[in-house]
Design a protein that fits this description.
2 copies of one chain form a homodimer. Chain A has 337 residues and is α/β, with parallel strands linked by helices. The first copy, chain A, contains 14 helices and 10 strands. In chain A, the strands form 2 sheets. A 6-stranded mixed β-sheet of chain A has the order 1-2-10-7-8-9, with helices on both faces. A 4-stranded parallel β-sheet of chain A has the order 5-4-3-6, with helices on both faces. In chain A, helix 1 packs across helix 7, helix 4 runs parallel beside helix 5 and helix 11 packs across helix 12. The longest helix of chain A is centred in the middle third of the chain and has 16 residues. At the A-B interface, helix 5, helix 11 and helix 13 of A face helix 5, helix 11 and helix 13 of B.
Chain lengths: 337, 337
Amino acid sequence: MVSPDNILEAQARIAPHLRRTPLLESSLLNSWLGHDVVFKVESFQRTGAFKARGALNALLLAKANGKAVDRVVTVSSGNHGQAVAWAARLLQLQVTVFTPADISAVKRQAMEGYGAKVTATETRAEAEAAIDAMKGSGAHLVHPYDDDDVIAGQGTACLEALQDNARPTAIFGPCGGGGLLSGTILAAETQTSRIPVFGAEPTLGNDAVRSYRSKTIVRLTDSPPTIADGARTLAVSARTLQHLLRLQNFYEVTEEEICYWAQWLPTLLKVAVEPTSAVAMGGALEWLKTQHTRQRVLVILSGGNIDRITHQKIWKEDFLRDVPGSKMRHSGASHVE
Amino acid sequence: MVSPDNILEAQARIAPHLRRTPLLESSLLNSWLGHDVVFKVESFQRTGAFKARGALNALLLAKANGKAVDRVVTVSSGNHGQAVAWAARLLQLQVTVFTPADISAVKRQAMEGYGAKVTATETRAEAEAAIDAMKGSGAHLVHPYDDDDVIAGQGTACLEALQDNARPTAIFGPCGGGGLLSGTILAAETQTSRIPVFGAEPTLGNDAVRSYRSKTIVRLTDSPPTIADGARTLAVSARTLQHLLRLQNFYEVTEEEICYWAQWLPTLLKVAVEPTSAVAMGGALEWLKTQHTRQRVLVILSGGNIDRITHQKIWKEDFLRDVPGSKMRHSGASHVE
């Protein structure tokens, strides 16, 4: 089982090839909230999302362990596919990415730009059968989250933030399959003092929250229609659930809250923030509303890859009329001004 | 008349209060274009735009020269108003910003957040009469561009880029009233080698291009309906025109080209890029199409303040289907692959 030491080892392995992404704060947001929020901006990571960390760690380790990884395969509609394509090119490996048929042109172009063969399949079952066939003939699968090496790589985002003196009293991350949160929990455990880690997931696809509460995997039958495309995963795995059970708490975030922060965060930070990242900020706000002393939270912004349809959905309603401060003031008796 | 030395002096004066904004490049864009484009990202400047530079320089100089500037006044619907409000608060001065009646809530909130009194007027004439009255009673006007100290401040963006080793073979900036371009031309003239500076303006509001060609001020009667709100100025001034006449060339950019780059630049750079900044990239592309040897252009991204209606307009059509490289290949006989 992956340990906090594995996060430190992953960092040493992958850092030479990756960007050390910045920590950003908005003084306006901090003054409005009465708390400090420090953002780890993975939008500036290679391929535009944290996923490059886990994919690269997994492929470097497989190579170092002498596995035959001249051909790599994965399934992804988004950031993980781009990450595996990028990491494979770096290591001069051939890669095939299976994607849904409705993948956006810009995502396909990005994967192909990294030299990947992109194969669209009509159903998930079709993709899984094709991957099984490729694995049978020796291809190496990089799973998006059910993989200790991927988890260790994802944890390096939080580790960097802690090393760069983020000094949080709490840490928030979004949840798809649970890889980022699992790694984040382990990264927090590298520190001498205990820092609670919280998860956040769209209410529309709350399988991980329900799995956390029931301590058993809850599986969705269909891809949930949340705008947070990184959180549409049908289920966590046994591997990630065992980590997720150590979360301090796990918040559900509505589509309106996701769009609210998907408008406000780029407006305040001037950085591209994808809806999945906005989920984490929605969770952080829920927790901050209940806090009576000034807190300093680390929010991991998972990435900045946003297609046109998602931009249109984000900007449909006007949430900029309602400043974040007012959300604190309206939050009821638990909040002290 | 303002000189290259004034840009260096302005930098020494204002730098302690401002951010040294980053230079960013997209390796994907460079490979697609066959040229290098380095972006000076003023989206990360205080107040989200380069305007903080000129406003602060003007107020610091007025104060240093012993002028009574305890009350400051300006007229702006956008970035200049926020910049003056921010600079005035820094210097503990009272400020009134006159704005159009249809100013967006988020811009008004930002100005008020900096402590400005925001007064909406129905017509430009009404605003000008109110400003004259305030000037009569001793208030200090910070003009958005017809002011040597403002011009000197705006030039520090380009100066920083040159000091930070941008090493451009050409420099591109957008044009509203001509303050940024005037300062940019002067900043380029601080260098020992001559670097040509090019301007770019929306075709829909091409008063400055026409003024440049006819060497006399052309004035629009109505605010042009371009999406590039920083370029809706009705006319340049005699002061800025004398600088603009030293531009190497001045490009007109269509609304479609502006939206094209307003989609692609944030997609590639993961940074908020307002349409006025996209105008400069549109101009740069027109020039690059005519170049037969690899060039390295500096594009000044003026800011990242984008309201909801503008986001909706930007993302209406799908320009991400058409990668920038294809625009070079379709550009006709003048381009060498």
